[in-house]
Amino acid sequence: MLVTAIAPIALEVGANRIVRGQALAHPFGDPSLAPAAERAYRARLVATALRALTEPVTGPTVFES
Amino acid sequence: MSGLAAHDGREETPATPIRVACYLNQFFAGIGGEEAAGVGPGCRDGAAGAALGLQRCLGNAGQVVGTVYCGDDYLAAQPATAVAAVTRLLARYAPDVVVAGPAFGSGRYGLACGQVCAAVQEQLGVPAVTAMHPDNPAVESFRGRVVVVPTQSTAAGMPLALPALARLALKLGRGEPLDPPGAEGYLPSGCRRNERADAPGAARAVDMLLRKLRGEPFATELPLPRYDRVPPLPPLSTTDGLRVALVAEGGVVPRGNPDRLPSAWATRWARYDLAGVDDLTADAFETVHGGFNTSAANRDPDRLIPVDALRALEAQGRLTLHPRLYSTVGNQGSVAVMRRLGAEIAADLAAAGVEAVVVGAT
Amino acid sequence: MSRPAGAVRPGARPVTLELATFTVDEVVVGNTDCYRDGRLEVDARALRALVRDVSDAFEDVAVNVVRPGDDARIIHAIDVVEPRARLAEPGSDFPGLLGRQATVGSGRTHRLGGLVVTTAGEPAPGEPTYWREAVVDASGPGAIYSPLSSLTHLVVTLKPDPRAFPDHDPAESLDVFQGTAAAIAYNRAARIAGLRVATYLAALTRDQQPDAVACYELSPVASRRDLPRVVYLFQMTCPYFYGQLWPREGSVGGTAPPPTLIHPNEVLDGALVNAYAMIACIRDCTYFLQTHAVIEELYRRHGTELDFRGVVIYTNGDSIASKGRIVNHAVSLAHLLGAEGAVLNYQGGGNPEVDVMLACQQLEARGIRTALLLPELGGGQGDSPFIHFVPEADAIVSLGSYEQTVQLGPVARVVGGARLLEGDEDASGPLQLSLRYLLGATIPYGQHVLRGVEY
């Protein structure tokens, strides 16, 4: 599945399972957070990504973390 | 090829009809249905089967001098020899143009038509045209190589397909250049090229906008594409014990970029060993992506592809992280190239027994 | 106290720019700087001194002339500037970079027609070089690919002094736009050098009679209710705006400024200047801003076919949230101007294309019809020329695909350098180059005549 901040492109191109990332330049991170908080954010994002693999979809779908 | 006599008040001398040779499958040639799909190449002088309809559309301007046929199954089973035999038969009629089909939605027939047209062009130097539905699998292989007229998906579209085929056959047979696909009514190759317009882009844009505002017809210079749709895979029942791989579009590479992955217009991918790597750190990894501000990612490359988070889950026994990181750079990347890279990475992953992939894209 | 009967409200004065053209038929490198009757004589030594005066970081400065039809090629081009001087308001040329702050776009500006000042030279240490190379052929098969080929170029070739970049670490990874602080300062100085020479040359026409005067004024057309009201939504990538860098979101220190309105005359008269050597085929050279083709075209038809209501400038966001924030605001401003139709461009790669498509979608949703100018990416079999598109984008002008390879012939003279930055090839040879390196080949403002067609 695909993690990206730019969901419109992912939907148009036809990625079926999409998780919305934080930002284009750092989809899996948030430099404004303290390191521990950022790691926790990344862990939540990855958990959503794994959850998306267990969800049925009928076409391109965005999962929000 | 003779042209028309000058208009000088006398009766015009009729032009010599274009010699047309047709290729049909067993059904449209009138040999038989599916049971005859194994019949080998043969021919009939003049127009036979569906070629009779084409002759009516050609009128006096063209003459179907011969109809060559072959069973779809026969050709599919031995394409090289069958196409060679069909080509020889067509050559015997000394055609100015070859018309194959229409194949409508039939994949085997479409492929046969495409192959025959390509062979006739390459080996006989004779122009050829065929027709089939735009979704016919043969279209992807032959568009751009062979002139393909779009049709409906079934033979119900014959009354529309034949006049279009006849018109293009006459033009090709006379050696006349074809107008662009949109104007002439055939499928574009899928490629584009540059030309000089008669006015600068700004003038054309304001022209187009004014027409649109006035409700007048206008034509976009860039039609919108359709991306192919890949059917989604059914969901996994659980991710416990899953073998997961990470694929980074963000250009994550070992520091120093040993494989010289380019920052833009990449045409390849790289694979890096993650053995002993629990966390992507700035001293060991970097991004070479040229399409965005890379400072945050370079301070912590896990922000582009979460090796640390996956390793943490692996330490908890929740899943296995595939020990190779796949990396490329999507910046300014051509869609066709990225499609190829994706397919190559997927093949590598499948061979390694990977069950799921997390792709990080910028 | 009530007003006496019959008094009228004083109205604001119209903004009128008079562009006085002095055509340059001949350029001679001689002993003095002088323009008379179409003949421009330049003193190379004096021009070099003008340039050196801008910065200590120029180790060497060379001045060469390349004329249309010359067997010559310009490489390593940085920026291109048309000589212009705002003689009615001395000291206000290119405010914030060359001159003092002043609102430009009104009064009389002198321009030299047919001549441009082109800065060129190797990159500064610490400058990102992803798309630094830029080529202009003065003749031969390559000349059709750049709208600049038909102009006479006064090429100012700059060489950076390595001693000005003491802290540069070649192993340091660089942001695509940013580069080191020293490189940013050098490139700002390089632009100022070009502006300085350009303004100086244009000022040689002081007190002379122009060959032609063009008048730019958004005269009210309220009486012509049948004329559709059109706005230009101008997407920019990091130009100087009155001398201040206008960053994209996420680049060069963070937040993009909110979209804003600008009078079209300001674009034509030096409010915007090129800041970065982005991909050559779409680079926002100052010359293309000064001669902005969409603005010129809208002015040409103002009052007869349309009512040109103004220009919204915006830059693109790096996240869905910032794209939304910026595009929403830009569209709202267009609507506020009374737009019934809008022309849109985009500048960059796939990232800013998303913003243009979002803007198109939102404008159409408000009933404002759109037409877009787009260069094409891709171009091979099965390639899409888009990264992102919306169904509402049904009126697009193609500026050509810049992924096509073009053949350039051998040349007798190369100005600006010797070997291409890409592939280290001898620049005088016959070259097979991607169109992306031809300066202005697919300029998003629509000056050029290239178009992509399907076949």
- Specify Rg of chain C, calculated over alpha carbons: 22 Å
H-E string of chain A: EHEHE
Q: If helices are DSSP runs of H or I spanning 4 or more residues, what is the number of helices of chain A?
A: 2
pLDDT averaged residue by residue of chain A: 90
Q: How many domains is the backbone of chain A divided into?
A: 1
Uncertain runs of chain C with pLDDT below 50, 5 residues or more?
A: none
Count of the domains of chain C: 1
Strand order of the largest sheet of chain C: 17-19-14-20-21-22
Query: Which percent bin holds the helix content of chain A?
Result: 40-55%
Alpha-beta content class of chain A: alpha/beta
Mean pLDDT of chain C: 92
Oligomer: heterotrimer
Descriptive report:
The complex is a heterotrimer of chains A (65), B (362) and C (455). With 65 residues, chain A is an alpha/beta fold. Chain A has helices at 7-13, 35-53, and strands at 2-4, 17-20, 61-63. Chain A is 40% helix and 15% strand. The model of chain A has no long low-confidence stretch (mean pLDDT 90). Chain B is an alpha/beta fold. Chain B folds into 2 domains: 18-184, 3-Layer(aba) Sandwich (Rossmann fold), CATH 3.40.50.280; 242-360, no CATH class. Chain C has 455 residues and is of the alpha/beta class. Chain C has 7 helices and 26 strands. The longest helix of chain C is centred in the middle third of the chain and has 22 residues, at 181-202. The mean pLDDT of chain C is 92. Chains in contact: A-B, A-C, B-C. Chains B and C meet through β7, α8 and α11 of B and α5, β20, β21, β22 and β26 of C. β7 of chain B pairs antiparallel with β26 of chain C, so a sheet runs across the interface.
Topology:
The complex is a heterotrimer of chains A (65), B (362) and C (455).
Chain A: E1 2-4, H1 7-13, E2 17-20, H2 35-53, E3 61-63
Parallel strand pairs in A: 1-2, 2-3
Chain B: E1 18-25, E2 42-45, H1 51-58, E3 62-70, H2 72-77, H3 79-91, E4 97-100, H4 107-124, E5 128-132, H5 138-142, E6 147-150, H6 158-173, H7 181-184, E7 192-196, H8 201-214, E8 242-248, E9 252-254, E10 270-273, E11 285-287, H9 295-299, H10 307-315, E12 319-327, H11 335-351, E13 356-360
Parallel strand pairs in B: 1-3, 1-4, 4-5, 5-6, 8-12, 8-13
Antiparallel strand pairs in B: 2-3, 9-11, 10-12
Helix pairs in contact in B: 1-6, 3-4
Chain C: E1 16-23, E2 26-30, E3 34-36, E4 39-43, H1 44-52, E5 58-66, E6 72-74, E7 77-81, E8 84-85, E9 107-113, E10 115-120, E11 136-137, E12 152-160, H2 181-202, E13 212-217, E14 229-236, E15 240-241, E16 244-245, E17 260-262, H3 264-268, E18 272-273, H4 286-290, H5 293-301, E19 307-315, H6 320-336, E20 341-345, H7 350-365, E21 369-376, E22 396-401, E23 405-408, E24 413-415, E25 431-434, E26 450-454
Parallel strand pairs in C: 1-9, 2-4, 6-24, 10-12, 14-19, 14-20, 20-21, 21-22
Antiparallel strand pairs in C: 1-13, 3-4, 5-12, 6-11, 7-10, 8-9, 15-16, 15-18, 17-19, 23-25
Helix pairs in contact in C: 1-2, 6-7
